[in-house]
Automatic annotation (TrEMBL), chain A:
Name assigned to this protein: MoaD/ThiS family protein
InterPro entries attached to this UniProt entry: Mopterin_synth/thiamin_S_b (IPR016155), SAM_domain_containing (IPR053752), SAMP2 (IPR053833), SAMP2_halobacteria (IPR053834)
SUPFAM superfamilies: MoaD/ThiS
Domain of life per record: Archaea
TrEMBL record, chain B:
PANTHER family for the chain: ADENYLYLTRANSFERASE AND SULFURTRANSFERASE MOCS3, UBIQUITIN-ACTIVATING ENZYME E1
GO molecular function, one term: nucleotidyltransferase activity
Superkingdom assignment: Archaea
Domain THIF-type NAD/FAD binding fold, chain residue ranges per copy: 13-249
Primary gene name: moeB
One GO CC annotation: cytosol
Keywords: ATP-binding, Nucleotide-binding, Nucleotidyltransferase, Transferase
Chain ranges passing through the membrane: none
Protein name: Molybdopterin-synthase adenylyltransferase MoeB
Gene3D superfamilies assigned: NAD(P)-binding Rossmann-like Domain
Species for this entry: Halapricum hydrolyticum
Length: 66, 273
């Protein structure tokens, strides 16, 4: 399935995942590891090891600077 | 109706007092309020400046760092002559010069599990203006446990993130979005990635705005929304946030019921993880 991955502050990517592909798989073509981001669906993070069930996600990066 | 404001205060705050939704009552509320600002650096500088100028009556400032020359590109509460001084002393001196109505309480220390609850006790609002995940998670947990509103801001290169956790019914918290901290070094900080000096100014002034609205009880805060501000493209993206029922600290069955439950030295993990 084709999923729109909106990396907040950066832009959107169209990512193909196979049957049973997980949310973590959506990060593979991107430059971010699962530790650096939260994958958000409908305002809440989704477990990265769960199969993708939506066609659009937001990826929010962890930012620490102050 | 002056609500106890003296002539000097009526003059100093006249632009607030004539403003609908602030007025004498709003100004009196600000003067009777207390805010703890954790971090007197890039974000903390404009926050301290604007809260002091607005007449927030009691301002706590927490930081254990000393001013360095490389800070001055963005930490505008400090100056060349402050290099080597404690940031809390430099910031307090700035406030004293700006507004004698404000009582400053300085805390030359790093927020830690054994002092966090005592530090935030008695403040109306806490502001996260820190530069590291351990303190961010610790402040979030302490504010959830004490039901204290928390303003969150963070910056990176040309970007910033800002939101407000009001701690009202159904209000999310930082851990609803990020359940645990990344491994040490996984996310670059400003010292390694850089930051455009004005970006913490942008985000910090939004945080100060949010705090003032909370204190005068007017307007809509960013509770339930996170703003991601990109100064390069001048884009603001709003990300809706919802309370996570599985959140380890504010969820339906929280694993964290006390600060002591969390391993802050180990990615701020909650006990069940």
């Amino acid at each position: 399935m084709r999923v729109t991955v909106d990396v907040v502050g950066e832009g959107t990517h169209e990512v193909e995942v196979g049957e049973g592909g997980t949310y973590a798989d959506l990060l593979e073509p991107l430059e971010y590891s699962r530790h650096e981001v939260s994958i958000v669906v409908d305002g809440q993070p989704v477990p990265e090891d769960q199969p993708v069930e939506v066609d659009r996600v937001r990826v929010l990066r962890l930012v620490q600077g102050g | 109706m002056s609500l106890g404001l003296d002539q000097t205060q009526l003059d100093r705050y006249s632009r607030h007092i004539i403003l609908d939704h602030v007025g004498p009552a709003g100004q009196a509320a600000l003067l009777n309020s207390s805010v703890l600002v954790v971090g007197a650096g890039g974000l903390g500088s404009p926050i301290v400046q604007y809260l002091a100028a607005a007449g927030v009556g009691r301002l706590g400032i927490v930081d254990d760092d000393r001013v360095e020359r490389s800070n001055l590109q963005r930490q505008v509460v400090h100056g060349e002559s402050d290099i080597g001084r404690l940031k809390v002393e430099s910031a307090a001196e700035f406030v004293a010069e700006l507004n004698p109505d404000v009582t400053v309480e300085t805390h030359d220390l790093r927020v830690a599990p054994d002092n966090a609850m005592e530090l935030i006790d008695g403040y109306d609002v806490v502001v996260d203006a820190t530069d590291n995940f351990r303190t961010r998670f610790l402040l979030n947990d302490a504010c959830v446990l004490t039901e204290t509103p928390l303003s969150h801001g963070a910056v990176y290169r040309f970007e910033g993130q800002v939101t407000t956790f009001e701690r009202e019914e159904g209000s999310p918290c930082y851990r609803c979005l990020f359940p645990e901290a990344p491994p040490e070094g996984a996310v670059p900080d400003c010292a390694t990635a850089g930051v455009l000096g004005v970006v913490p100014g942008l985000i910090g002034t939004i945080q100060a705005t949010e705090v003032i609205k909370l204190l005068i009880e007017y307007g809509e805060t960013l509770d339930g929304r996170l703003w991601n501000v990109d100064a390069a493209g001048m884009d603001v993206e709003t990300v809706p946030l919802r309370r996570n029922p599985d959140c380890p600290v504010c969820g339906d069955d929280p694993a964290v019921t006390a600060i002591e439950d969390v391993k802050y030295a180990d990615r701020c993990r909650a006990p069940s993880e």
